[in-house]
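Protein entry
_____________
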Amino acid sequence: MKKIATNVVTFIIIAALLIGGFLIYKNYNKKKELKEEYSFVIKKLTQKTELVVTDAAVSTSAKKEFTSEKTKDWPAWTEPIVKSVVGRTIEMEIPIKTEFKIVLKDITNDDIIIDNRNNLKFKKPLTVNVDSQVEGEIEIINSKSGIIDKAVDVATSGKSAQEFFTEKTQDAVYSTSEHVIKDEKSIEKVIKHASQSLEDVLNISSDRKIHVELTKEDLVFVNIDPKSNEK
């Protein structure tokens, strides 16, 4: 009887050691896999300094007025335009495209959480740079004193003229970015497509299938367009 009891105790001890060893090994492997998972995610994310949010761009147009007072210091080649606005106001229409770029370069292991279902979450908000640019030709669309003549159309159609007007209308570009940041529909669109863009980057050529679902609190929008002294 005593021998049987001894054997039972021995069996229990061996079983406990085996189970303990198995759990330690399993926990070690889990930690190793998790470490590899984090390294994989960080490597994927930081391959790019910024990630353009696919399908989230916003195309709009802005308007800006110029009076004769505003044009007095313009270069000589703008003379046909300047003559057309003496004592009058001309309105320009500016086609603008706004893009959204997630800043990825500074993300580290400490900034992310990956759960056991491969859901990726961020501990602190990601910065999204809001970048608006003139896309297409700036056009004179209205004169408050009458019709714009053909000489003005010719003067504004060249590359140098467009570059000049782009510089003069930079404040409208900046204001467009400010407006988009405050537009709820645009922000919702960015959140949706930012999640998908991040997933695409993480899962390309990979079987891991990491899932990303961002919320408004996960993103901070920053207007990176320069202000202008033009008023």
